């Protein structure tokens, strides 16, 4: 929207100009279920089918009447909303439901996870980064204690003439001085090298094309270079691994391997040995990679990721911010591929479309109780969003999980139609990805298109936005591009998607495919 006549624009100046340029600069005035409304020049309310649904945060659509009624009642009852540092049993009520679901859905899971609440998805991810670092620091402290004890034993053995200091491949020792001097020289140099390593931050593991948020630490787990690279100096680095090459994961992790130096007295000789250093902080995984164009993890990848974490000893953090809360036909998308996490994150739909809420869950075996006070926020765990979360969970679990079955059925129906479009237009559509109501249609690359405007839009990464603009302008359907090249269109509506909505969607996509096939670049530009 433009500013009031003559007024200065202080917010979204660049963003709004850009939205206008691709035909997405519409201000919506009302929202209900899967429909957004705007008012046109004639004062008429125009409905728009919303396939974006708050980036997948509306499993029950915009303003579900039961959620709205629940919210109104909560406000009428004057429930305490912000009362930090008091007993807030709603936090435990939510965690109890989540643990029961984990117990039901996750194979080998015992459903014993401690909950820490947050305000956004990215904050929940950062909470996990912090907790994983606490765990890592505890492991390092144990290791350095042992190394300190071994150094002391070596000192005593050398002082008593029971041991001599051997040459070693790590640290070259001077020829001068006695055994005690040589040992002190060795310990000082080993200590310096160890201290350098210990002072460094962890390396995190994530999958290529991952999206885990845009805060200081979480943006380093989000591969998109435009968002990540300007801020690499602010946080720990990430090694991105290929989800489609699980067999290569162990080797990639092996490359990161590094050791602390320790000394042992063996048969009257002080020798230097390497001790594996816990350099890896955690492995972050989306069971369905949303920003990567709705790519579900394979079972083989899930198995290998679990094996890597077990071998390294780092927590496996399953980011269900996008895929969780029932969207894929199960509460946890990871349950489809048997992925068991040490930590979980949830956000988006837990807010019921009207509140901001997020939670990180930590397996009890790993949870450090002091963390309950080490991370907090004025707004987190508030009574209002907690009350909404409990309502959403109740709605999801009602009728023996009817909502999950509907999500799966509606998703299958939509996917079927997308697949038919893909097979009718193999020249312009690459593939359909996703599961449940987390789907994407991937168009073929158009950077070598015959049409110049198409080529140009594709080269600048704008083609997907122009497709979204056209679908909005001509079909009154809101979609957005997704995927590293922006070549896919994302579909993540609520469970109330109707057959008529699906038919309209098919019609719009066939139109887009026909335009691409005909290389009618002019029609794609507003
Ligand atoms: N993790 C995942 C898997 C996400 O999809 C997102 C957000 C976040 C973390 C960050 O959550 O926005 O509440 O801070 N995904 C949005 C998307 C932006 O495009 O689907 P946030």
Automatic annotation (TrEMBL):
Cofactor: pyridoxal 5'-phosphate
GO molecular function terms listed in the Swiss-Prot or TrEMBL record: transaminase activity
Keywords of the record: Aminotransferase, Pyridoxal phosphate, Transferase
Family label: Belongs to the class-III pyridoxal-phosphate-dependent aminotransferase family.
Entry protein name: Aspartate aminotransferase family protein
């Amino acid at each position: 929207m433009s500013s009031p006549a003559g007024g200065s624009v202080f917010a979204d100046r660049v963003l709004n100009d850009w939205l206008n340029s691709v035909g997405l600069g519409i201000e919506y005035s009302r929202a209900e279920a899967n429909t957004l409304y705007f008012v046109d020049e004639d004062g008429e309310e125009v409905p728009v089918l919303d396939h974006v649904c708050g980036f997948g945060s509306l499993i029950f659509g915009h303003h579900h009447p039961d959620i709205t009624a629940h919210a109104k009642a909560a406000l009428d009852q004057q429930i305490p909303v912000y009362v930090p540092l008091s007993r807030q049993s709603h936090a435990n009520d939510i965690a109890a439901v989540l643990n029961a679901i984990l117990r039901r859905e996750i194979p080998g899971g015992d459903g014993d996870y401690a909950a820490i609440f947050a305000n956004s998805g990215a904050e929940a991810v950062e909470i996990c980064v912090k907790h994983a670092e606490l765990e890592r620091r505890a492991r390092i402290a144990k290791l350095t204690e042992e190394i300190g004890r071994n150094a002391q034993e070596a000192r005593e053995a050398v002082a008593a003439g029971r041991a001599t200091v051997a040459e070693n491949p790590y640290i070259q020792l001077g020829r001068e001085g006695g055994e005690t001097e040589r040992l002190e020289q060795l310990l000082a140099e080993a200590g310096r090298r160890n201290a350098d390593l210990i002072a460094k931050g962890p390396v995190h593991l994530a999958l290529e094309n991952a999206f885990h948020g845009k805060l200081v630490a979480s943006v380093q787990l989000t591969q998109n270079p435009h968002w990540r690279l300007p801020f690499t100096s602010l946080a720990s680095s990430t090694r991105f691994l290929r989800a489609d090459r699980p067999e290569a994961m162990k080797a990639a992790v092996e490359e990161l391997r590094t050791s602390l130096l320790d000394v042992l007295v063996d048969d009257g000789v002080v020798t230097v040995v390497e001790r594996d250093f816990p350099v890896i902080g955690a492995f972050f995984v989306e069971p369905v990679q949303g920003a990567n164009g709705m790519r579900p993890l394979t079972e083989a990848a899930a198995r290998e990721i679990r094996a890597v974490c077990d071998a390294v000893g780092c927590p496996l953090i399953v980011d269900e911010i996008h895929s969780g809360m029932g969207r894929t036909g199960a509460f946890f998308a990871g349950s489809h591929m048997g992925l068991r996490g040490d930590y979980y994150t949830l956000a988006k739909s837990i807010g019921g479309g009207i509140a901001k809420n997020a939670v990180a869950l930590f397996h009890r075996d790993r949870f450090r109780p002091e963390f309950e006070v080490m991370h907090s926020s004025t707004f987190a765990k508030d009574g209002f969003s907690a009350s909404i979360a409990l309502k959403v969970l109740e709605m999801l679990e009602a009728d023996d999980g009817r909502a999950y079955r509907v999500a799966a059925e509606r998703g299958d129906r939509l996917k079927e139609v997308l697949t038919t479009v893909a097979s009718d237009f193999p020249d312009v559509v690459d593939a359909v990805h996703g599961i449940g109501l987390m789907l994407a249609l991937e168009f073929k690359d158009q950077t070598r298109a015959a049409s110049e405007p198409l080529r140009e839009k594709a080269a600048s990464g704008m083609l997907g936005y122009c497709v979204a603009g056209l679908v909005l302008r001509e079909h009154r359907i809101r979609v957005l591009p997704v995927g590293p090249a922006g070549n896919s269109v994302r579909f993540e509506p609520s469970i109330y998607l109707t057959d008529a909505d699906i038919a309209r969607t098919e019609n719009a996509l066939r139109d887009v495919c026909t335009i691409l096939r005909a290389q009618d670049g002019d029609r794609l530009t507003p």
